[in-house]
Amino acid sequence: QKEVEQNSGPLSVPEGAIASLNCTYSDRGSQSFFWYRQYSGKSPELIMSIYSNGDKEDGRFTAQLNKASQYVSLLIRDSQPSDSATYLCAAFNDYKLSFGAGTTVTVRA
Amino acid sequence: DVKVTQSSRYLVKRTGEKVFLECVQDMDHENMFWYRQDPGLGLRLIYFSYDVKMKEKGDIPEGYSVSREKKERFSLILESASTNQTSMYLCASRQDRLYGYTFGSGTRLTVV
């Protein structure tokens, strides 16, 4: 079992819609969680971090964490063409970040 | 902003060559990491370092070594490059466990 699993996608949403990305993790000891955005040919860029159960909002992005269900999600509201990218979920445990394989999002104009 | 600089954006090397990938960060971070990223396999940890002259193996260390002689610099070494080491290599640094990584721009290595 992979340490971090994401819904495989790809995900296509119309401009202005909500994109919903999901992630589960296997290690209950995981302490902090991150979402990265990666444009094609570029390196990952940190967009959200979350440490406690519940929701965390930053602009058009909302991260949700449920430690009991070992579940992390990312909502992108009012999706824009510039949001088209691969989104990586990551969980911190022990000494490192473990990454999911990523979900590719395409926002249709 | 933290800056993580990788010395080469693209590299082409021959099988059997010794390859050095350099990474420098400018924010006095103690933690530095080397990952490789391959389609369908995601990001996999090769080596990491918590401090100068300290190194730990990650998930896929075989065929690689690292050097950290100064706090700001973490080098990845491919002792004898092979074609299965063709990949995107990403260096990252981190302030502490509550913070995510900051990645460098990546080095796309092709071994022919």
How would you characterize the overall build of this protein?
- The complex is a heterodimer of chains A (109) and B (112).
- Chain A is mainly beta and 109 residues long.
- Helix content of chain A is 0%, strand content 58%.
- In chain A, strands 2, 4, 5, 9, 10 and 11 form a 6-stranded mixed β-sheet that branches. Chain A has a 5-stranded antiparallel β-sheet with strand order 1-3-8-7-6, with no helix packed on it.
- In chain A, a hairpin with a 4-residue loop joins strand 7 (61-66) and strand 8.
- The termini of chain A are far apart.
- Chain B has 112 residues and is an all-beta fold.
- In chain B, strand 6 and strand 7 (56-57) form a beta hairpin.
- Chain B is globular.
- The interface between A and B is medium-sized, with 21 and 21 residues.
Spell out the blueprint of helices and strands.
The complex is a heterodimer of chains A (109) and B (112).
Chain A lengths: L3 E3 L4 E4 L4 E7 L6 E7 L6 E6 L3 E5 L2 E6 L4 E6 L8 E9 L2 E4 L3 E6 L1
Parallel strand pairs in A: 2-11
Antiparallel strand pairs in A: 1-3, 3-8, 4-5, 4-9, 6-7, 7-8, 9-10, 9-11
Chain B lengths: L3 E3 L3 E4 L5 E3 L1 E3 L5 E8 L3 E8 L6 E2 L6 E7 L2 E6 L8 E8 L7 E2 L3 E5 L1
Parallel strand pairs in B: 2-12
Antiparallel strand pairs in B: 1-4, 3-9, 5-6, 5-10, 6-7, 8-9, 10-11, 10-12
